[in-house]
Write a structure and sequence with these properties.
single chain, binds phosphoenolpyruvate
């Protein structure tokens, strides 16, 4: 079901104590009465259970940053979807550009990760987006189309209804360069059209599509005001309590 979502991707940051404090401050700082979005934090794996415990008693929701493409077994260092489900996580980021770039994740691997998550009813937050060179060559639509087709379009309609998409132009991640609201809207509308072509108009209308890339408390309102932007995947700004809480109130 389509909903507004603000999800914080903490990446590889914070100690256990810092993570516990930040989760506590965010959970207790949410203006639950006036909140118009689902708020998700995605801390590093060792801190996921803290977030999951807070999800039991507050409006905060918990997500992981990655999952194994394998089910179980001799895969040292990997974390399975079953493990994430066993601590009741509701979301998991997949296909983040940092994983594509530094860990060489392919669209095929990302597809398998999505399958594992859906086996355990965890909502994948599927990241897609072009690098600067691709935008400069005006290839951003082809790139995003290929990422979506190769990682998502094997799903049945029912499976697809559990997907959240995050459009994250790679040139905007951690750079302070945000896509303009018009650029975000243009790509989100394109993605919705792609979904309509494969799964029908209703599925397209019902999919949450988030924007990510240097989104902060100053620009969130303008980005989220676009008809096809349903919130944000927030990196740097999600580590600052006041900034993140402001973003959650930007609808
Ligand atoms: C991200 O890593 O998903 C992200 C959007 O990062 P930032 O907000 O720091 O650009």
């Amino acid at each position: 079901m389509r909903k507004n979502i603000v999800a914080g991707n903490w990446k590889m940051n914070l100690t256990f104590q810092e993570a516990e404090d930040l989760i506590d401050e965010i959970a207790n700082g949410l203006d639950e009465e006036n909140l118009k979005c689902e708020v998700v934090v995605c801390p590093p794996a060792p801190y996921l259970e803290i977030a999951s415990d807070y999800a039991d008693v507050s409006r905060l929701r918990a997500g992981a940053q990655n999952v194994s493409e394998y089910e179980k077994g001799a895969y040292t260092g990997e974390i399975s979807a079953m493990m994430l489900a066993s601590i009741e996580l509701e979301y998991c980021i997949v296909g983040h550009s940092e994983r594509r770039r530094y860990f060489r994740e392919t669209n095929g691997q990302i597809a398998r990760k999505i399958d594992r998550l859906l086996d355990y009813s965890i909502h994948p937050i599927f990241c897609c987006g072009e690098v600067l060179e691709e935008r400069e060559q005006n290839r951003q639509f082809d790139v995003v189309k290929q990422q979506i087709e190769e990682s998502l379009f094997h799903l049945t309609s029912e499976e697809f209804s559990n997907i959240v998409i995050a459009y994250e132009p790679v040139w905007a991640i951690g750079t302070g360069k945000t896509a303009t609201p018009a650029q975000a809207q243009e790509m989100h509308a394109f993605i919705r059209k792609l979904i309509a072509g494969k799964y029908g108009e209703e599925a397209a209308r019902e999919t949450s599509i988030l924007y990510g890339g240097s989104c902060n408390a100053s620009n969130a309102k303008e980005l989220f005001a676009n008809p096809d932007v349903d919130g944000g995947l927030i990196g740097g700004a999600s580590l600052k309590k006041d900034e993140f809480l402001k973003i959650t109130m930007s609808f």
